[in-house]
Design a protein that fits this description.
12 helices; twelve-stranded mixed sheet; single chain; 377 residues; alpha+beta
Length: 377
């Protein structure tokens, strides 16, 4: 008996044998995870009041002979799949599954080593599957145990790490809600990874963690174990670096677009840092700045520019901004990470930080193929 037949039996539904496919390859992600539609820029986000670009070429050359402060590199990604449609009562809902990979690599003596990897298979169902509506967590955990005990999953030595569920909403696409749940689980695993590195006392002023992507995590309920008030200190030595960003969302303190200012960034220079919060993150505050690491053989004015973020930890930082010296040190180290470039191997080559590229490759190498994964159902 395969996974879908077990599901039909356990939740009293009917599957239709719909076409199975990888959602990610069909189209771009339907959700904008990395940036809020409304960023709220409050004041300048650093201790020195810069009005123009800050050139860091000399500082980067000087630091090239020192040990880099970027020692750990984290990348999280997910592959999502439409598996089938299932009828429950008079309604039909999509069945969505995913593979999540969150990996961390470390650098010792100029060599890269895997530090840790979370690989998790998940299934996403509507909450109405639990007809009684009592204790969703217990219900879906018991359902997961029954699926994991099936011969088909045992034969392939595969287990689901989670059955996620979403509450259906009127006029909202159920498939998008399901994909958002997989994204949320990936972010949760990233937070767990950062927590473990912090508890092991591996992160310090000379051993930063570079996370690929934004640190702008979605606001959660106060009782959530990963509510940012509870985990903020874990991010004292963590920076987020985005290879792509929407320049139209970058506003000055006065609310004017900063797109032209960012596009004209000279090579090896950064913008002043701004302090911002957003509708997604609630009251959390960040310092954000843009840094150009490459300026030749580019396809657009924003190629070769990184968006860099750091959570403001202390109350002093949240009022006065991040130390400009720390921003310069982080930026100079990022400039020194730009080579060797994987020219032509990726459309984002001009924005690649090479150890992040290696970490991405490490995580992606652990995925099951699309054909194999969707056929276990």
């Amino acid at each position: 008996m395969n996974v879908l037949r077990i599901l039909e039996k356990e939740i009293h539904g009917k599957c239709f044998g719909s076409r199975r496919y990888n959602v990610d390859t069909l189209s771009l992600s339907p959700l904008a995870y990395d940036e809020s539609p409304k960023m709220i820029y409050k004041i300048q986000g650093e201790t020195e009041k810069h009005k123009s670009y800050i050139n860091l070429e000399i500082l980067a050359k000087r630091m090239a002979n020192s040990d880099p402060i970027l020692r750990f590199f984290l990348d999280g990604s997910r592959h999502t799949y439409k598996i089938d449609d299932i009828a429950l009562g008079n309604n039909v809902y999509p069945i969505v599954a995913g593979q999540i990979g969150v990996g961390c690599c470390r650098r010792d003596n100029k060599r890269m080593f895997p530090q840790h990897l979370y690989r998790e298979f998940v299934l996403v169902l509507p909450s109405v599957v639990n007809k009684d509506g009592n204790n969703d967590e217990l219900f879906f955990n018991l359902l997961m145990q029954k699926l994991n005990a099936s011969d088909v999953l045992k034969r392939y030595e595969i287990e689901f790490g989670k059955i996620l569920y979403y509450h259906t909403r009127k006029d909202e696409d159920s498939e998008k809600l399901a994909i958002a749940k997989i994204q949320d689980r990936m972010v949760e695993l990233e937070k767990i990874m950062v927590k473990e590195l912090t508890e092991q006392k591996l992160l310090a002023s000379g051993a930063y963690l570079l996370k690929d992507g934004s640190l702008e995590y979605k606001m959660t309920r106060t009782e959530d174990p990963f509510h940012f008030d509870k985990i903020r200190n874990n991010y004292r030595h963590v920076i987020g670096v985005s290879k792509s960003f929407n320049p139209d969302l970058a506003k000055s303190v006065s609310g004017q677009s900063n797109a032209k200012f960012i596009a004209e960034l000279p090579l090896y220079s950064r913008t002043p840092a701004f302090m911002y919060s957003s509708e997604i993150s609630g009251e959390e505050r960040y310092a954000i700045w843009y840094l150009r690491i490459r300026g030749a053989h580019i396809n657009s004015p924003f190629d070769g520019i990184l968006k860099v973020e750091k959570v403001l930890i202390s109350e002093r930082e949240r009022q006065a901004g991040l130390s400009s010296e720390e921003i310069d040190t982080i930026s100079a180290n990022l400039i020194n990470e730009r080579n060797p470039a994987c020219y032509g191997a990726d459309e984002r080559w001009a924005n690649h930080i090479y150890p992040v590229f290696l970490t991405e490759s490490f995580v992606k190498s652990k995925y099951l193929s699309t054909e194999f994964f969707i056929n276990i159902f």
